[in-house]
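Quick one:
INPUT:
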């Protein structure tokens, strides 16, 4: 089943609002190029689609789309895809090879971060006539440009424009001119930057893309790699191996931090390594679930026999029944009378938490859920037990906490003589998903 999860990449570790969102579509082999473009348009972000490789030399294939077209390569989306595969246990973090339209990209997991390779940049200086046009487009004087303007390319050409920090922060770009100017430059984006005073190998930058469908980009990995090589050519970072830090998105209120590990100038391999923080972009429902059911305290529902935990049909998602567990152990016993209601409620809520985490894992986010349509409860109860409603009301209340704006689901509750593993309560659900 094709699933999508939003990953925020290159954010600062102490902030939730930074970085660049990347929709990652897993198992996307059945999607056409038109499907992928349509999804990128709906999201408004650079999107990555994970497919099986075309040959045995690669472990996977990635395709990248912005709202207007397909791209050869996208750094932050590649980091997002590998991070998600690692998080889901589908990649162990060892060195891997990725097929892209820009060529083979290598990936690895080092010190808690995904790193991807980029080749040594090809660079050439932009002539003065075009520099004057760049200044006009940025609405600054030519004299505000603090050094040579360079086209630098690892996977995609970026135009590096050195400024001072105040000029960079105050840019008021003539956005309608960016596309035609980039066409003249043979570039995919203007990348003005300023060295950060008092910090080693650190720059701030802003990206104005040629034709992505949005005016400015909060974090651009490929441009940061191109800039790192440009800083070496400029003599700003020396010839030893160095970790270059590029800050971006500050003017947009989405501060980002991108790291580029440059090799020593005389190293045999001239690839650099691009890295940065990655984490899920949580929907409100995900945050509410984490508040009532922290991930490390819940055993996610998994099949214990020859069946699937979840099955999707169109916009509907059906779950199998799950018995309530605590600390990985089934909550066992029978409901005999009113004194057992609290134990039944505990088991019912544990089962719902387990199912919601399974749904979250499958879909990438509970933000993909429109509503819970049906809730079914099966209670191991004696013939004289009559408090079924009170037991399952606790499960309904939990769903209301996670999805407070949704209508209550329909519900069926039955008493049974026994449940798998001696469980006390088993729960299943039917959910309606958001339209793609």
């Amino acid at each position: 089943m094709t699933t999508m999860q939003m990953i925020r990449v290159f954010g600062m570790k102490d902030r939730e609002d930074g970085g660049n969102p990347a929709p990652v579509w897993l198992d996307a082999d059945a999607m056409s190029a038109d499907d992928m473009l349509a999804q990128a348009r709906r999201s408004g972000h650079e999107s990555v689609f994970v497919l099986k490789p075309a040959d045995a030399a690669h472990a996977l294939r990635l395709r990248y789309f912005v709202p207007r077209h397909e791209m050869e390569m996208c750094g932050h989306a590649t980091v997002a895809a590998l991070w998600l595969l690692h998080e889901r246990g589908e990649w162990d973090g060892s060195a891997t090879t990725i097929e892209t339209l820009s060529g083979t990209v290598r990936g690895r997991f080092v010190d808690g971060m995904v790193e991807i390779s980029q080749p040594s940049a090809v660079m050439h200086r932009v002539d003065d006539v075009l520099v004057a046009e760049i200044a006009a487009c940025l609405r600054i004087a030519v004299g505000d440009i603090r050094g040579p303007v360079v086209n630098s390319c690892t996977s995609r050409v970026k135009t590096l424009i050195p400024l001072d920090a105040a000029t960079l922060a105050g840019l008021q770009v003539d956005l309608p001119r960016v596309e035609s100017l980039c066409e003249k430059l043979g570039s995919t984006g203007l990348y003005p930057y300023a060295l950060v005073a008092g910090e080693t190998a650190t720059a701030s930058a802003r990206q104005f893309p040629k034709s992505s469908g949005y005016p400015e980009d909060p974090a651009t990995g490929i441009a940061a790699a191109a800039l790192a090589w440009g800083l070496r050519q400029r003599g700003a970072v020396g010839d030893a191996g160095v970790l270059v830090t590029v800050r971006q998105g500050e003017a947009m209120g989405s501060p980002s931090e991108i790291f580029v590990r440059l090799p020593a100038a005389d190293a045999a391999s001239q690839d650099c390594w691009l890295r940065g923080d990655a984490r899920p972009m949580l929907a409100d429902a995900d945050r509410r679930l984490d508040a009532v059911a922290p991930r490390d305290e819940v055993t996610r529902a998994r099949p214990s026999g020859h069946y699937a935990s979840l099955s999707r049909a169109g916009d509907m998602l059906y779950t199998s029944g799950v018995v309530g567990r605590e600390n990985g152990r089934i909550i066992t016993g029978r409901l005999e009378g009113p004194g057992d209601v609290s134990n039944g409620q505990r088991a019912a809520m544990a089962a719902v938490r387990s199912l919601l985490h399974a749904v979250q894992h499958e879909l990438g986010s509970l933000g993909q859920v429109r509503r819970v349509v049906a809730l079914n409860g099966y209670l191991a109860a004696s013939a004289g037990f009559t408090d079924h409603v009170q037991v399952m009301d606790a499960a309904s209340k939990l769903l209301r906490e996670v999805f407070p704006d949704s209508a209550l689901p329909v519900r069926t509750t039955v008493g049974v003589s026994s449940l798998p593993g001696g469980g006390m309560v088993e729960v299943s659900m039917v959910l309606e998903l958001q339209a793609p």
